[in-house]
């Protein structure tokens, strides 16, 4: 059964209780315009089921989600005559997640649009970098 959260604004959109500017849907995914776009044509793609973060989305939805992101992304670029496209995804409040129903932002970008991406830093040493890689890899065994 598809999980729902009665207090979730995106579940209400899936149920049709709150309107949205829908652009595409599949059995498991819905794509609609963000109400406060970074640029016009900014689309949100999400699983119809209520999963709080990326890490909660069942792996079996992966093919549907990636195919939807790719297909919608192409249409967004064409519709907005974009030069580029950002795929953004926020998990938990510390990372900027406001709506706790996992979703992906497709943001059309135009050459010279003035938006900057987040700053990059570095590692203190190559040991710090390889140590962290080992810890993450160990958790994935
Ligand atoms: P987050 O920060 O959680 O990754 O992004 C949430 C996004 O949902 C924001 O960009 C916000 O503009 C959008 N949003 C919030 N409420 C609604 C709504 O009711 N309808 C639509 N279409 N977008 C919404
Ligand atoms: Zn939800």
UniProtKB/TrEMBL annotation:
> Cross-referenced InterPro entries, in alphabetical order?
HINT, Histidine_triad_HIT, HIT-like, HIT-like_sf
> In this protein, which residues make up the domain named HIT?
9-116
Q: Which GO terms describe its molecular function?
A: catalytic activity
Which residues does the Swiss-Prot or TrEMBL record annotate as the active site?
103
Q: Where is this motif: Histidine triad motif?
A: 101-105
- Give the matching Pfam families: HIT (PF01230)
Q: Give a GO biological-process term.
A: nucleotide metabolic process
- PROSITE patterns associated with the record: HIT_2
Taxonomy, superkingdom: Bacteria
UniProt signal peptide: none
What the entry lists under CDD domains is as follows: HINT_subgroup
- This chain belongs to the protein called Histidine triad (HIT) protein
């Amino acid at each position: 059964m598809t999980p729902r959260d009665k207090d979730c604004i995106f579940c209400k959109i899936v149920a049709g209780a709150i309107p949205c500017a829908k652009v595409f849907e599949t059995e498991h995914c819905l794509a609609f315009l963000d109400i406060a776009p970074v640029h016009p044509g900014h689309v949100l793609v999400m699983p119809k089921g209520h999963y709080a973060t990326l890490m909660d989305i069942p792996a079996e939805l992966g093919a549907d989600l990636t195919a939807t992101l790719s297909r919608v992304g192409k249409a967004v670029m064409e519709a907005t005559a974009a030069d580029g496209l950002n795929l953004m995804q926020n998990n938990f409040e510390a990372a900027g997640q406001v709506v706790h129903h996992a979703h992906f932002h497709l943001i059309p970008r135009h050459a010279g649009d003035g938006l900057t991406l987040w700053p990059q830093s570095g590692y203190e040493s190559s040991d710090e970098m390889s140590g962290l890689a080992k810890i993450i890899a160990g958790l994935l065994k």
